[in-house]
Input
Amino acid sequence: MPEPLLAVEHLSVEIPTRRGVLAAIDDVSFAIEPGEVLGVVGESGAGKSITGAAIIGLLDPPSRIAGGRIVFAGRRIDDLSDAAMRPLRGKEIGAIFQDPLTSLNPLYTVGRQLVETIRVHLGLDRSAARRRALALLQDVGIPAPEQRIDHYPHQFSGGMRQRIVIALALAANPRLVIADEPTTALDVSIQAQIIALLKRLTREHGTAVMLVTHDMGVIAETADRVAVMYAGRIVEIGPVRAVVKEPRHPYTVGLMGAIPALGLRRERLPQIDGAMPPLSAIPSGCAFHPRCPKVFARCRGERPELLPVGSGAAACWLHAEALGKRP
Amino acid sequence: MAPDEAAPGALRRLADSDLFWSFRRSPVTVVAAVVTVLLLLGAALAPVLAPHDPYDLASLDLLQARDPPAWEAGGDWSFPLGTDDQGRDVLSSILYGLRLSLLVGVSAVLLALALGVGLGLLAGYAGGWIDTLIMRIADVQLSFPAILVALLVDGVARSLLPHDRQDQTAVYVVVLAIASSIWVQFARTVRGSTLVERAKEYVQAARIIGVHPAAIAWRHVLPNAMGPVLVIATINLAIAILTEASLSFLGLGLPVTQPSLGTLIRIGDNYIFSGEWRWMLLYPAIALASLTLAVNLLGDWLRDAFNPKLR
Amino acid sequence: MTQEAEAPLLRVEGLARHFDVSPPLLNRLLERRGRVLLKAVDGVDFAVRRGETFALVGESGCGKSTVARVIVGLHAPTRGRVLFAGTDLARPAPSAERRRLRRRLQMIFQDPYASLNPRWRVRDIVAEPLRTHGLCDGEGAVRARVDELLGEVRLAAADGDKYPHEFSGGQRQRISIARALAATPDFLVCDEPTSALDVSVQAQILNLMKDLQRELGLTYLFISHNLAVVYHVSTMVGVMYLGRLVELAATADLFAAPRHPYTRLLLATVPDLALSGRARAPLAGEVPSPIDPPAGCAFHPRCAYANDRCRRERPELRQAGRSRVACHAVEEGRLPAEG
Output
């Protein structure tokens, strides 16, 4: 069995504050195979963006990795210094962030930013780098790239800017791209275009993608597998079809139910009462237990680990009972 | 609901707050605060602390003029820091001078604040020609150095007032002169904040509810626009004190009968080539410098404490 | 009274709102440029009946938020009029009368963080309409009514003493709703009220809004870019593009048989959670700027069915089956029917 491209093992990230240390991510483990698209879905405060930031080494201090390891292509990367991380970042692991306006430097032309990235990571000379930049712009669908390569970011629309960001992320042909809410800031009709572009390009280059988003619809269309996060933990993980059509964890069930869908008109949307707990007040045992319609005694005291169920896994004691695992 | 379960009182909230915590963490700020408080107390309690009354012309004895401080030869413990050219006790003069400097400084800042915040709020909220008018006046004024504006106002006031009233009204004139040189910064900052807040949805909500525009400006926008004002006020307090000292040093501020620290420095300045400058010039200068530095440092800390990005 | 019950509660006629975004006078003189007009809303007509939820959908820049703001009085219309309960809101009326009328129209905003004054306690925020219009007699009555309103939005009376920053996004929207209800409105304009909220919180707020509509007999104008949400909450839908209405229909009709090419595009972009394998067919092109809209039909540069007439002549809303559509291709029968 080939080893996974990225393996995250028992990762924890903490944020020291004046009032104590908060656990932003608490013992999270997952793997991404080469060429696979893993969706990481969750609501705000679930810790999905911090997971992406930790992997690529861009955690904002004072946040820091408190435990576990991150292994990329067989090599441990969570303990690398910033200098050691820099050649990896961009060349092996690319990043796409949410806001295309701030991802691009407004003072430099698009061409200059592309060429700089290409030269740093691929060591090409200036004219070769420019040719490659033009090819990339063509590939991401920027019309008339020969003229537009010398334009500034503000001269492009939001959708075009995001295409350029994708071009930048893929410029050095990385093996893994971390995309953090790449379509959230865009209009609905543009979102569809960008998703299609991302899918095509990553399939063509065989790039693996970690797609972080709150939008289940985007995940359903793009990802091969999906991990559902809640209060800094993974509560369910599995193939996209399985998780979307037959969710096993009560939170995932509630989440899928709460999404309004065409074709079925209901009087009330099934809702999950309460709200995600703040980092300073995460409940004991299973973090979801105060809101869970199926809670029982074990949930309050013991935190469930990811237990295999169906074709995936869910962190829920309901399935331990089913498997015959007694406390 | 029992009283101690209610929302914590204001003092408790202050002690728990991020502001107080950042204060405790910075030794420089704590020292600056201590110095300021000491100087404030000295100034407030001047009538009690000062061994003599430097304004009482009858008690001055020219024979005791230009005496050195008590620990030197020729000094006397009844004049601990020595005397000036009129026989006034330097320590008493410094204490009373501090008092005047602080009085004038604080009054000028308060007046500038009232004027600047009011005009800034009006300009920002009303917009249109009112905004343009106020801002152009502010721009014109900013093209002059503050001290020149103060001199101008001072000079105009003097020429308008009858000569025998000038000493009594000097304090008011100086306060007005300084306030007119520093109001612009308040106005511009508050106008900027007002423009930002005015675009926010809670102001729109108030308009939809039907609240009168003046009520919206006063009750909704102003509390949210006042944030930077405290920092500006503190920093401008140091500027106001120095401006007053400069005016007095030039002989245009407070009269010799009500010497402020600036006047004392001017007097001491005359003796710079003799040995007496050591107490007639140096000690008032140290007092002025300490006060200005301490207030400035407090202002710096406030500005950093309120800047969320530096936390 | 019966007459009012049958006539629409809100009617918008030929509404237009333009913004002057010209460069300053000096620049215009030096660079010889003319005035630049942003036509945010360019001729919109619709009516909302009492008890209905009318949704305005479209992407950013289509003018739906501007329509909301004109209706509620934040902007004056450049052209056209807004009739509420039969009365033109712009025409000068005795101001007490006009205030009473305006009070019945309230608004809920998109951003839960900017829509509450951060320095006011929740109690005062919710009480403001009561105090402004003198709806309660004395502070005791105000307090009691505030507690009642907080209860209606499923918050505790003790929450009144707190400040907005102590609440989550969903709770802040509840506070906004409580404030809007304090004025005892008939009509609530909701500008993307759940777009900034998480999915599970959105479900809570949408359910709350439906309950309140039933309990208090409210009428909603619901602005959104999310078609799935619109499908769930609305009874009538208007689709906007570049300041104009391109299709107007009952919700069931619009989703079952969308006619305008833009409506079809929008529907095709709704993610398919049933994973039926329906391919999303992304349409090329960007939404053009409302400062320089295309001539004729605003959608023609992106439309597969555009002909010469579309490039020259602006289509009007015409009846087509059970919907009203502004499209020459539909009128001429050139558009294939969709199942």
Observations:
- The two ends of chain C are 43 Å apart (CA to CA).
- The first strand of chain C starts at residue 10 and ends at 20.
- Chain C has a mean pLDDT of 87.
- The domain at 2-104+185-331 of chain C is CATH 3.40.50.300 (Rossmann fold).
